[in-house]
Amino acid sequence: MAGSDTPPAQPPRRPLVAILTGAGISTDSGIPDYRGPNGLWRRDPEAEKLVTYDTYMADPEIRRRSWRMRQDSPAFRAEPNAAHEAVVRLERSGTPVRVITQNVDGLHQRAGLPERKVLELHGTVRAVTCTRCHARSSMREALDRVAAGEPDPPCLVCGGILKSATVMFGERLDPEVLATALGVAKAAEVFLAVGSTLQVQPAASLAGVAAEHGARLIIVNAEPTPYDALAAEVIREPIGSALPRLLAGLTEGG
């Protein structure tokens, strides 16, 4: 038979899946959350001062305590868990995926998700920045200096105060990162909020924005959130088992 005018079948278009992740996705990696029943802020309310910008800048003792806390942080020993790996599998299946994370641990990237597909709303604990000249360097280098006897290591470029490259209380989010996250939320056809209390703004509002723009909102969190009423589905099961199952279903659904 001569050539056909019928074009070859195109594979079905896969929906854009946006995943907002909070501290709850990393608890299985040994990193405690902040506001849960056993969260850091509930166990030690004073710890919040260590990550409050004005207090950190004004009080050398707070800075010294902060550096000691960083030395002992489980974030540097943590490995990605089953939930992080499930997100990578979804991305490698060909599904368009963007992760918007409130976490600073870098575990999504460690699991194999490309850097360009991860928006770190609250920065990263794996780098430090100077509060005066904004020079950036590795956290490991700064912690090595602390271990060598510098309890509050100054910037090696200008002598200014160093801080973790995270967004402290009292600091604003990077407007460019936030704007990109907002665009992702508006464009998403499926929006998952995973391990987040959805109480910290403006990150939490992304769930509402996604729902308002027609996304199917799915919330996976142990505790109720202010956005549960907008969700098509709310899952209270442990994230380490619930998320891999949920994302495998999205892959199969194509």
From TrEMBL:
It comes from the Bacteria. Gene3D superfamilies: SIR2/SIRT2 'Small Domain, TPP-binding domain. Its EC number is 2.3.1.286. InterPro entries: DHS-like_NAD/FAD-binding_dom, NAD-dep_sirtuin_deacylases, Sirtuin, Sirtuin_cat_small_dom_sf, Ssirtuin_cat_dom. Residues 1-254 form the Deacetylase sirtuin-type domain. GO terms for molecular function: histone deacetylase activity, NAD-dependent; metal ion binding; NAD+ binding. Zn(2+) binds at C130, C133, C155, C158. The active site is at H122 (proton acceptor). Pfam families: SIR2 (PF02146). It is an enzyme of class 2 (transferase). Keywords: Metal-binding, NAD, Transferase, Zinc. This is protein acetyllysine N-acetyltransferase. It comes from Streptomyces angustmyceticus. The gene is cobB2.
